[in-house]
Prior knowledge:
- It contains 6 helices and 8 strands; from the N terminus they run ααββββαβαβαβαβ.
- By secondary structure, the protein is of the alpha/beta class.
- The termini are far apart.
- It is elongated.
- It has a 3-stranded parallel β-sheet with strand order 5-1-6.
Amino acid sequence: MDGSLRLGTPFIIISLLLLTAGCTPVAHDASSPSAAGDTDILRVGVSANAPPLIYKKNSKITGLEAALAFKLGDYLNKRVVFVEVPWEKQIDYLNQRKTDIIMSGMTITQERSYLVDFTVPYLRSGQIMLVRLEEQQRFSGGIGSILNKNYKIGSVAGTVSDYFITSTISKARVV
Length: 175
């Protein structure tokens, strides 16, 4: 056998291996199951609709929770990837390992505690009622101003506020 053929064969095999290695599929979707095994990524589940906590500005997720997520990523030495999740699917995504953590202003409730583990809260807030400036006198009595009245009240479905409104204000039309 010719010596040049023996030398050329490994070169061809290595070249083919390198070329086909470039054809291996790569997961670009941070919520895909294959991304779940990537230990360098922290997949943060967000519903980016709650400024100043978490929201989109110029197509970029920003806010207090986004800044906290980046700090957590730095601490864990992981790259943060935000996974936008409909609010009502946050816990499902976490339990299906599509996300690693939820950072979207989720209130700790007993029902949710049966489904997921919570950390020590990094933010505590209360419930507030927002009304039009010209109607502030009409609602100056706080929650008492709307009890047993037929008002249209906006709320995010599945939140603690939504539960409070639907269980407390009997005549409310929730939107």
